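Model the whole thing, not chain by chain.
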Amino acid sequence: MQENENKEKQSDYDGIEYNPETRNKLPFSFKLIALVLLGFGIYYTPSYLPGVSGWTQEGEFNSDMEVYKKKLAATAVDSIQYDKFFTDAAAVEEGKTLYATQPCAACHGAGGEGLIGPNLKDAEWVYGGDAKAIFKSINIGRPKGMPAYKGQISTDDMLKLTAFVHSLSVAP
Ligand code: HEC
């Protein structure tokens, strides 16, 4: 009788009642966490563990870089077909109109004879008179006061300006 009373006291401590039969069962939240972690492990091991999946940080970095490089190549100056309009008479005419409507004439003179900017009519070039060089002068600008027109004039229009500027230098 004395023993029984003791037992009762153990399962009713400070007014908190324990049912000795369920006391050792895992709480639901523990099971849930264990399951989630187990699930994560099952997913992670074949997907990312280098020895099992072949996945490496470096590999992922390189594949990201491939995507990035492709994007860059699509927008890079070097993917431009510089001579697209270079000898196209119609484009040269359009370039002439652009030259007059864009600020070019303000610095290079109405006929390209030179003002603040250098003469574009002679056959002498500071940066080169081929399609790529002229386009670059217009596209990215030149250090001694030639503004960059990238983003302000479309690529095609810059190529037409290139054709026109070139035509000035070869005109008889
Ligand atoms: C604010 C004045 C200014 C404007 C506007 C301007 N340029 Fe220039 N440009 C210059 C100067 C100054 C240089 C020389 C830069 C240098 O030597 O670094 C130059 C250089 C150039 C060159 C290189 C010439 C060479 O000998 O290699 C080309 C081509 C050219 N400009 C074309 C144009 C065209 C086309 C436009 C209009 C879209 C234009 N520029 C608008 C001032 C201007």
